[in-house]
Amino acid sequence: MAEHQVTRDETAAAATTGLRGVAADWASDQRTFKDVSWGKAMMWIFLVSDTFIFGIFLLSYMTARISTTEPWPDTGEIFALTFFGQEIPMILIAIMTFVLISSSGTMAMAVNYGYRRDRAKTALLLLITALFGAAFVGMQAFEWAKLIEDGVRPWGNPFGAAQFGSSFFMITGFHGAHVSIGVLFLLIIARKVWRGDFDHGRPGFFTSKKGKYETVEILGLYWHFVDLVWVFIFAFFYLL
Amino acid sequence: MNDSRALSNSSGGQTQAPTANATGQQHPIGLYLKIWGWLFVLSVLSYMVELFDVQGTARWTLVIGFMLLKAGLIVSVFMHVVWERLSLVYAILVPPSVILVFVFLMVLEGEYVAWTRIVFFGEGS
User: Fold this and answer.
1) Which of residues 36-75 of B touch A (CB under 8 A)?
2) Which ipTM score applies to this complex?
3) What is the fold of A36-239?
4) What is the domain extent for residue B110?
């Protein structure tokens, strides 16, 4: 055991699994995350910090909602849309949820085809993912416009507790910004895949490291995270 | 067939050598489609809660239950966490769970603030 911890041979240490493996990895005096590249480890560290940001947003929303003495607005009514003369509650938010989940599905497949070195399919799936993401942001813009028209402001609204507006704009705005940045990166990586950067190991303009298909997986981690955050927002802000 | 084998591999992954290797995460595409389908079903179910206007404890249980299932599927399969080494899994999952302590504290604090608002700014004063 002690020999494993000081050896330079990382594969030997990586062979240990379970809790013993956790202890060996963290105590190895080498890189802790054995079979994970730096790019992936750094993306995970960023995502954990982002989890805190969204976690604290939802937490402050919870605190505001518990502590206000005014009734909280009925989200089912506020986000209802009228189709063919019939009012359907929360329909736009439901569609947005399905769009984002579909984009997660296409992203997962893009990662898969990337590792199969299928350049065309990977690029196409990344573009479809970006398209879903853009559709999501578009629907969110529509939703914002509708609520602003209805008189919802960060400092008050006609439906109930004033904190509803500030929570709504803060949480969905921050999430929408994440989706928008994700769409931008999806387009950039789709272009790189299409150009064959990851097949020929063309150096990145910023990192000057050889391009490889793992980049698609790292981008995928970010995109799935954005979908994950929406799962929580959909449940806590819209449904409860 | 391949998919179920991959899944059962993952559940016992702690005792076996990890599937992930230098060439990256490679899993059958059918597995992703299956998870995608489940995410759709779970989303439909949580929308049903709104559509049929379920209220009270049942609403909270259903909505949070579906939410946790969806989150679990996304994190474990789409983000490949079940196939990662435990040291990374713990580094990802343990720190955010501390937020739950914060939630507990802020529930107490929020209730107290609501109480003071009712007592000092309420109609009775």
Assistant:
1) 36, 39-40, 43, 46-47, 49-51, 53, 59-60, 63-64, 66-67, 70-71, 74-75
2) 0.87
3) Four Helix Bundle (Hemerythrin (Met), subunit A) (1.20.120)
4) 86-125
